[in-house]
Amino acid sequence: MDQPDPRNASGLILSVTEPMRSFLALASDDRRLSGELRDIASDLRPRKTVPYKLLRAIWTGSDPSTRPELLGLFSGSEFVFTSPKPREKSEELKLRLLKLREVAERKEYAELVKDITPRKQVEEPFSSYKDQLGFGLHVGLTMFTGYLIGYASFRALFNRNPALSAAGGILGLVLAMLVETLLFIIKTSKDDQIQSSKSPSSLSSSSSFTPTIKKNQ
């Protein structure tokens, strides 16, 4: 029969009392026990805790006439509970926690300065009825002007031919619409570049100011 390993502390752990220590001292010299159990008893004697399985194995193999009662041996002893080893966090989890912490710090900073920093109002094209009406009148006037220029040009070139004059007016109208569309695209792209150039500076200033607030706190 294989004897328990004295280095294996699995299972119940008991605090060593003086009756236990006296029993282990006797068991280390008990010839009824195997040499391995005597070595286990000698090894457990100076310890403050002892595994229940090992103590029970030594008690079972010892001389019944000299060994103490099992209940009396355990009298005054207490269970010893060991804390489990904390689980190590993976690198991926650490990165996620770091990102969540940064997001929480940004929200906290924005909450702190929301009454100090004025909100930036982003002006969008045609955000009001007046802008829409003005742009529509401008496009209509430009197209009408293009039509008149094309009509007059073709009428002078083709001896006042009504069909060709009308075709020239339509061509002028289309060209005017294309020019107006191109100008609108250029204006919109410039506005987007201006807004994007302003946003990094504001972000850098807020990120550089955040550590200062933490240090002061």
UniProtKB/TrEMBL annotation:
Location in or out of the cell: Endoplasmic reticulum membrane
Q: What is its main location?
A: endoplasmic reticulum
Record keyword Transmembrane present: yes
Q: Which residue ranges are recorded for the region named Disordered?
A: 193-217
Low complexity: bias regions: 196-208
Q: Which InterPro entries match?
A: ATPase_Vma12
Q: Which GO terms describe its cellular component?
A: endoplasmic reticulum membrane
Q: Which UniProt keywords apply?
A: Endoplasmic reticulum, Membrane, Transmembrane, Transmembrane helix
Which residue windows are transmembrane per the record? Answer: 135-154, 166-186
Topology in the lipid bilayer is annotated as:
Multi-pass membrane protein
Q: What is this protein called?
A: ATPase, vacuolar ER assembly factor, Vma12
Which organism's genome codes for this protein? Eruca vesicaria subsp. sativa (Garden rocket)
